[in-house]
Amino acid sequence: MNVLSMHALIGAYSSDGRVWMEELKKVLESNINLVYSFFQNEVQGVSLRKPEGTYVVVPNFENWCKVHGRTFDELLRSGVEVGVLWRDGRQFHIPYGIRLALGLPTQKLEEVLHRLKQYVL
Q: Has this prediction a pTM greater than 0.90?
Protein backbone atom coordinates (compact mmCIF):
# COMPACT_ATOMS: atom_id res chain seq x y z
CA MET A 1 0.00 0.00 0.00
CA ASN A 2 1.33 3.47 -0.81
CA VAL A 3 0.92 6.58 1.34
CA LEU A 4 -2.00 7.97 -0.69
CA SER A 5 -3.88 4.68 -0.50
CA MET A 6 -3.31 4.50 3.24
CA HIS A 7 -4.74 7.98 3.82
CA ALA A 8 -7.66 7.31 1.48
CA LEU A 9 -8.49 4.15 3.43
CA ILE A 10 -8.29 5.98 6.76
CA GLY A 11 -10.53 8.73 5.42
CA ALA A 12 -13.04 6.28 3.98
CA TYR A 13 -13.55 4.56 7.32
CA SER A 14 -13.62 7.74 9.43
CA SER A 15 -16.76 9.60 10.47
CA ASP A 16 -15.94 12.22 7.82
CA GLY A 17 -15.84 9.46 5.23
CA ARG A 18 -19.30 8.29 6.27
CA VAL A 19 -20.68 11.83 5.94
CA TRP A 20 -19.15 12.10 2.46
CA MET A 21 -20.61 8.72 1.46
CA GLU A 22 -24.09 9.71 2.64
CA GLU A 23 -23.88 12.96 0.65
CA LEU A 24 -22.69 11.04 -2.40
CA LYS A 25 -25.58 8.59 -2.13
CA LYS A 26 -28.03 11.50 -2.16
CA VAL A 27 -26.44 12.99 -5.28
CA LEU A 28 -26.41 9.63 -7.07
CA GLU A 29 -30.05 8.93 -6.20
CA SER A 30 -31.03 12.40 -7.39
CA ASN A 31 -29.10 11.90 -10.66
CA ILE A 32 -30.69 8.50 -11.24
CA ASN A 33 -34.17 9.95 -10.72
CA LEU A 34 -33.37 12.89 -13.01
CA VAL A 35 -32.23 10.66 -15.87
CA TYR A 36 -35.10 8.21 -15.40
CA SER A 37 -37.62 11.06 -15.46
CA PHE A 38 -35.96 12.60 -18.52
CA PHE A 39 -36.21 9.43 -20.59
CA GLN A 40 -39.72 8.60 -19.36
CA ASN A 41 -41.17 12.08 -19.92
CA GLU A 42 -39.05 13.83 -22.53
CA VAL A 43 -37.97 11.15 -25.00
CA GLN A 44 -40.32 8.70 -26.69
CA GLY A 45 -39.07 5.25 -27.68
CA VAL A 46 -36.29 4.86 -25.11
CA SER A 47 -36.62 2.20 -22.44
CA LEU A 48 -34.73 2.40 -19.18
CA ARG A 49 -34.60 0.66 -15.82
CA LYS A 50 -33.37 2.27 -12.64
CA PRO A 51 -30.15 0.70 -11.42
CA GLU A 52 -30.22 -0.99 -8.04
CA GLY A 53 -26.55 -1.21 -7.13
CA THR A 54 -24.60 1.07 -9.42
CA TYR A 55 -24.56 4.62 -10.75
CA VAL A 56 -24.58 3.53 -14.40
CA VAL A 57 -27.78 3.53 -16.45
CA VAL A 58 -28.18 1.96 -19.87
CA PRO A 59 -31.04 3.44 -21.89
CA ASN A 60 -32.10 1.24 -24.81
CA PHE A 61 -32.50 3.26 -28.01
CA GLU A 62 -33.66 0.47 -30.35
CA ASN A 63 -37.23 1.75 -30.77
CA TRP A 64 -36.07 5.36 -30.89
CA CYS A 65 -33.66 4.60 -33.76
CA LYS A 66 -36.37 2.76 -35.72
CA VAL A 67 -38.94 5.53 -35.27
CA HIS A 68 -36.46 8.28 -36.23
CA GLY A 69 -34.82 6.39 -39.10
CA ARG A 70 -31.33 6.71 -37.66
CA THR A 71 -28.70 4.10 -37.10
CA PHE A 72 -27.27 3.51 -33.68
CA ASP A 73 -23.86 4.71 -34.88
CA GLU A 74 -25.40 7.98 -36.10
CA LEU A 75 -26.98 8.47 -32.68
CA LEU A 76 -23.68 7.84 -30.90
CA ARG A 77 -21.82 10.26 -33.17
CA SER A 78 -24.43 12.99 -32.82
CA GLY A 79 -24.07 12.90 -29.03
CA VAL A 80 -20.28 13.09 -29.16
CA GLU A 81 -20.45 16.00 -31.62
CA VAL A 82 -22.27 18.10 -28.99
CA GLY A 83 -19.99 17.08 -26.13
CA VAL A 84 -21.90 14.14 -24.66
CA LEU A 85 -19.31 11.43 -24.11
CA TRP A 86 -21.47 8.38 -23.72
CA ARG A 87 -20.34 4.80 -24.06
CA ASP A 88 -21.48 2.30 -26.65
CA GLY A 89 -23.29 -0.57 -24.94
CA ARG A 90 -22.51 -3.13 -27.65
CA GLN A 91 -19.24 -4.04 -25.99
CA PHE A 92 -21.37 -5.07 -23.00
CA HIS A 93 -23.75 -7.10 -25.22
CA ILE A 94 -26.47 -4.43 -25.20
CA PRO A 95 -27.00 -3.78 -28.94
CA TYR A 96 -28.84 -0.44 -28.70
CA GLY A 97 -27.73 0.53 -25.22
CA ILE A 98 -25.74 3.58 -24.26
CA ARG A 99 -23.99 3.53 -20.88
CA LEU A 100 -24.31 6.73 -18.92
CA ALA A 101 -22.29 7.09 -15.72
CA LEU A 102 -24.13 9.33 -13.27
CA GLY A 103 -21.33 9.95 -10.79
CA LEU A 104 -21.04 13.64 -11.61
CA PRO A 105 -22.44 16.89 -10.23
CA THR A 106 -26.16 17.24 -10.94
CA GLN A 107 -25.57 20.56 -12.70
CA LYS A 108 -23.30 18.83 -15.25
CA LEU A 109 -25.86 16.08 -15.75
CA GLU A 110 -28.58 18.67 -16.38
CA GLU A 111 -26.33 20.23 -19.03
CA VAL A 112 -25.85 16.83 -20.69
CA LEU A 113 -29.60 16.18 -20.78
CA HIS A 114 -30.21 19.67 -22.17
CA ARG A 115 -27.70 19.07 -24.98
CA LEU A 116 -29.27 15.70 -25.77
CA LYS A 117 -32.77 17.16 -25.95
CA GLN A 118 -31.77 20.25 -27.91
CA TYR A 119 -29.33 18.77 -30.41
CA VAL A 120 -29.65 14.99 -30.55
CA LEU A 121 -33.04 13.55 -29.60
A: no
